[in-house]
Amino acid sequence: MAENTGTADMQTVAAEAGDDGVRRRDFINIAAVAAAGVGGIATLVPLISQMAPSADVLAESSTELDISAIQPGQAIKAVFRKQPVFVRNLTTKEIAEADAVPLSELRDPQTLAERTKEGHENWLITMGVCTHLGCVPLGAGEGENRGEFGGYFCPCHGSSYDTAARIRKGPAPKNLEVPPYEFTSDTVVKIG
Amino acid sequence: MSFPWANEYTPSHPVMKWVDEKLPLPRFVYNAVGAGYPVPRNLNYFWNFGVLAGFCLVLQIVTGVILAMHYAPNALVAFDSTEHIMRDVNWGWMLRYAHANGASAFFVVVYLHIFRGFFFGSYKAPREMIWLLGVVIFLLMMATAFMGYVLPWGQMSFWGAKVITGLFGAIPVIGEPLQIWLLGGYAPDNASLNRFFSLHFLLPFVIAAVVILHIWALHIPGSSNPTGVEVKTESDTVPFHPYYTAKDGFGLGVFLILYCAMLFFLPNALGHPDNYIPANPMSTPAHIVPEWYFWPFYAILRAFTADFLFFPAKLMGVLAMFSAILVWFFLPWLDNSPVRSGHFRPLFRKFFYVLMLDVLVLGYCGGAPAAEPYVMISQIATAYYFLHFLVILPIVSSIEKPEPLPYSITEAVLGSDDKAALKPAS
Ligand code: HEM
Ligand code: FES
């Protein structure tokens, strides 16, 4: 620009600039645009984060459950974070079936022992949320379809879970999630 | 722009002259959809669907704004407020059915509008931008329809919301946080319902803005026509008004008869009875299906049942489903044939009909339960769908020998073109 001496205007501009062709106004321009840019981006933070879960949703209540009435082979549906949890009392046959599967055959390799608490291996506690797109699988209720592998069956797109609630067939990528929980006594579990 | 022979807007009344000087809005309308817009004389009824789509958009906005006066977007009362509209609000049942069936009508019309583009090569130069904006409109329509279906907060609303937002969970690493952010919780709840309502109200106005760009882009080259031969002289065109206002008016009448037949005699035929059961986060309906207009894409989503090329099945399904629409963005460059209209492309025409059949098969499978034989059929149909766009179209457009084109639109219509005959033989 500085070498352009074609018009009167351009000459004044050239005169304002220092030896290196930089004007004081260039600095002001860059500083102003940069400040506006940073300010603009900072405004996005509240605009975006308002959509994240609010404090009341995050204050996830924990759920205490008395499991003494659940017979072997039976399961119940409880609620945790407004989503279903399956609590299932496995039969010895179901445990043996789960243990008999070689890990190499599994899409998401985990043993039954890794998915239960020591000393309570018959208690399979998982979220009742299919890891495909989030439907509630069948199999916790009396007489519901438990699918080919005897665990849970998701009717939405046909995912089958085995007796350790591990994914065996269908589109779901992962085993049913095990939520954080602990046994507060032999008959009471606290989920969350 | 327009053709040089376009009629000029000449207001005679002093008030109209005064308005024209201050804000030439009447002039704009005259040049856009009045006697000042020359249109090919040979447009067939497939060219009615653009105007019909515009009508549907207005219909949805009018009925929607009214419904919003009576509806309450809160998870505790949303279902009841919908029933309140159906039972207590004066004419509420009609307005709600008009909006629900209006969405279906909108999709019927837009699908025909898009397939018109497929067959007549409307996406080709110089109309690529019209096409790209059209695909954007279609994506916005899908988002709007999805969020609207959540609002009554019935079983299908709830589980539809859960499954569709679950799609985002398939994205590696950021998927799960993204899904929670979209929903504002771990599962659809009040936060999700409220934001969906807000966006469902907003998006149709965004669509209206993109439609304006779409028509602006259309008016630069002007409409194409069934021969695909560009306008050459004045005798190839007629003014939009009264010729196409009349033709579109007739089409609108036919459309309204069919629409009202659905609205008054079969208002629930396209809906799902499970959506009259209030949302229950603890139990999934035995058979979740989206609305019919999403079925072909839903079939593609479900076609991926096993991991494929290191991608988990779930991610593949999601990518394939979105790609099925995104591939349309590349259509103007995948089909290289200089001939637009399918009427003059014997090989292309055959594959066009196979594609239509393929989409119908996908649609049927998408509405069917996730069991054999539907899964296998969807897999084959999905493979063919992508084969059509990515392999067949480019090959066909390079090996095909098109049939001879008419010299001009006038010749195609009248059998001869005086202007052509008068041309000195060279
Ligand atoms: C709200 C939805 C839409 C409205 C209101 C709308 C409106 C219109 C109107 C009024 C026309 C001119 C009349 C005609 O040719 O039929 C038109 C042309 C066109 N539209 Fe759309 N449209 C919509 C959606 C779409 C979509 C989803 C696509 C494609 C993906 C699309 C692609 C086209 C093309 C390529 C043309 C030019 C056709 C030609 O002149 O040959 N439109 N649109
Ligand atoms: S949500 Fe369970 S298989 Fe799709």
Summarize the structure in words.
The complex is a heterodimer of chains A (192) and B (426). Chain A is α+β, with helices and mostly antiparallel strands and 192 residues long. Chain A folds into two domains: 8-49; 57-191, Rieske [2Fe-2S] iron-sulphur domain (Rieske Iron-sulfur Protein, 3-layer Sandwich). Chain A has helices spanning 8-16, 24-49, 55-58, 92-100, and strands at residues 63-66, 75-80, 83-89, 123-127, 150-154, 159-162, 167-169, 181-183, 188-191. Chain A is elongated, with a radius of gyration of 31 Å. Chain B is an all-alpha fold. Chain B has three domains: 1-36, no CATH class; 38-288, Up-down Bundle (Cytochrome Bc1 Complex, Chain C); 295-407. Helix content of chain B is 62%, strand content 1%. In chain B, helix 3 packs antiparallel against helix 9. The radius of gyration of chain B is 24 Å and the shape is globular. At the A-B interface, loops of A face helix 7, helix 8 and helix 12 of B. The complex binds protoporphyrin IX containing FE and FE2/S2 (inorganic) cluster. Protoporphyrin IX containing FE binds next to helix 3, helix 5, helix 6 and helix 9 of chain B.
Characteristics:
A: 192 residues; alpha+beta; Rieske Iron-sulfur Protein; 21% strand; B: 426 residues; mainly alpha; 3 domains; two-stranded antiparallel ribbon; 2 strands; globular; binds protoporphyrin IX containing FE; binds FE2/S2 (inorganic) cluster
Walk me through the topology:
The complex is a heterodimer of chains A (192) and B (426).
Chain A: H1 8-16, H2 24-49, H3 55-58, E1 63-66, E2 75-80, E3 83-89, H4 92-100, E4 123-127, E5 150-154, E6 159-162, E7 167-169, E8 181-183, E9 188-191
Antiparallel strand pairs in A: 1-9, 2-3, 3-4, 5-6, 6-7, 8-9
Chain B: H1 14-22, H2 25-33, E1 38-40, H3 49-68, H4 78-87, H5 92-120, H6 128-150, H7 155-168, H8 175-183, H9 190-218, E2 237-239, H10 240-265, H11 295-303, H12 313-326, H13 331-334, H14 346-367, H15 374-399, H16 409-414, H17 418-422
Antiparallel strand pairs in B: 1-2
Helix pairs in contact in B: 3-5, 3-9, 3-10, 4-5, 5-6, 5-10, 6-7, 6-9, 7-8, 11-12, 11-14, 11-15, 14-15
